[in-house]
Amino acid sequence: MSYTLRAMLREAGSMLPTAAPAVAENVCTKTAFVEFLEYNEFELAMEQLEGLGESYKMPVRFWSLLLACAKIMELQTSAAYYERQIAACRNS
Questions:
Q1: How far apart are CA 57 and CA 71, in angstroms?
Q2: What whole-number distance in Å separates Cα of residue 1 and Cα of residue 19?
Q3: What is the pTM (predicted TM-score) of this model?
Q4: Are the C-beta atoms of residues 37 and 23 closer than 8 Å to each other?
Q5: Which terminus of the chain is more solvent-facing, meaning fewer CB atoms within 10 Å of its CB: N or C?
């Protein structure tokens, strides 16, 4: 399971733009994401991606990967949020 989570989180992380986030007060960073992933802190890594994803216009695939991770970790609140993000992407 951890390989699958790691692979999905890594794929989502690779989708982030290289430019700095538009939201200056964002406390989430790619560095923190990598560190959490390295130490198998998958929920914290996912939260970093979520925060960064909110700063960019991310595609459905990004949110779908986070949704899959949240479901594996049985994080219903996060899963519901990612489902709303996916719906918003499809409706925009």
A1: 23
A2: 31
A3: 0.92
A4: no
A5: C
